[in-house]
Task: structure prediction
Amino acid sequence: AQSVTQPDIHITVSEGASLELRCNYSYGATPYLFWYVQSPGQGLQLLLKYFSGDTLVQGIKGFEAEFKRSQSSFNLRKPSVHWSDAAEYFCAVLPSGGYNKLIFGAGTRLAVHP
Amino acid sequence: NAGVMQNPRHLVRRRGQEARLRCSPMKGHSHVYWYRQLPEEGLKFMVYLQKENIIDESGMPKERFSAEFPKEGPSILRIQQVVRGDSAAYFCASSSSDGRGSYGYTFGSGTRLTVV
Result:
């Protein structure tokens, strides 16, 4: 079945530490890939997206993500986390065929210790 | 250039009442999507609409829920005879074509429905 998996429900890091949030997808063909961030009580903000081309994509707020076809993964990274990065992060895919329907993972809640 | 506008931001309804959630897409966007986020969960697709057409409603509960996107005016998500389990955040997104353009989907700030 088609799915998007974010294996880590909660992650806690210290401010200044590096961060990697995992995302795996299960689709027949390479979908379009997105990372969104949601602060408490707020809507979703697009961090970055991958459609094609360079597999390392840069986003806003110092985030980047790397698409690895062999692993069906699109992990989000940041070299140095700031306290303001505490939020929930969602990986999403847009299947390459059929109707357009953005499919979300369950999310990873990031806490940042001072 | 306003983004996706959703109103109200917060809505409280008693069990059995109707809830009407409105979504005005970004200017120039003709595709609207509704998602529901239950507490502590991710976003679940509900329905995809274009002007005057429902394209995909595979995520909509079979009863009590309906959606429309008329030729003029906002998209409306309507929940009849609300129950406590309908309490959630409802997000609307819009796109200009098939969502694969440079900007993909743009999300609104959501409507938080509380059923008491």
Notes: Chain B touches chain A through 25 residues (CB under 8 Å). The mean pLDDT of chain B is 91.
